[in-house]
Amino acid sequence: MILPIVAYGDPVLKKKGGEITKDYPKLSELLDNMYETMDGAFGVGLAAPQIGLPIRLFIVDTSPFSEDEELTPEEQDELKGFKRTFINAQITMEEGDEWVFNEGCLSIPDVREDVFRKPNITIVYQDENFETHTEKFSGLIARVIQHEYDHIEGVLFTDKLSALKKRLIKGKLTNISKGKISVDYRMRFPNQKKKR
User: Fold this and answer.
1) Residue ranges for the binding site for Fe cation?
2) Active site residues
3) Containing H/E element for 188?
4) What is the pTM of this model?
5) Is residue 194, in this structure, part of any structural domain at all?
6) Residue 193 placed within a domain
7) For residue 139, is it left (φ>0), alpha (ψ between -120 and 50) or beta?
8) What are the strands, taking DSSP E only, across 27-155?
9) What does the pLDDT look like over 8-47, one tens digit per residue?
10) Cα 127–chain centre separation
């Protein structure tokens, strides 16, 4: 089932997510719904806060990036095959010289800005079977993970922009929070009442 994506301005996007256990209600159904929602919105990642749940859960599927012709065939293959569920994740290290990439977010449609991040990360997380992994990632995969990880920490990519950039996009962000935007996927805006 495709779930509505929570728009910029909703307090859930600023909450730090809580850890979950393997008996979290209907987890496998939730994951199926999250993947369906992400795919339906042509995203490469989706975090639980973006569907209104303040928990430490996010998913990543970088295959849409694999069609970038500027990448080497090896990079394309790596991105094509990368689909992962991250539960209770903790980034334990970020290293290397920061690099810039133009980021967007399903919760902040029609806003794209350059964001600086370190290229290499180490992350400890549990998969959908609650098996624990410690892995290193780099490049675009690391960046997508960092972006989604920020969501479970209550951080948006717009929080990483300069004061000037924030002022320049303030009007757009206000319009998004008021629902004055047209998108081709389901969204829930802060001023909308939840359906019972």
Assistant:
1) 105, 147, 151
2) 148
3) strand 187-188
4) 0.94
5) no
6) no
7) left
8) 45-47, 57-61, 83-95, 99-105, 108-117, 120-126, 132-138
9) 999 999 999 999 999 999 999 999 999 999 999 999 999 9
10) 16
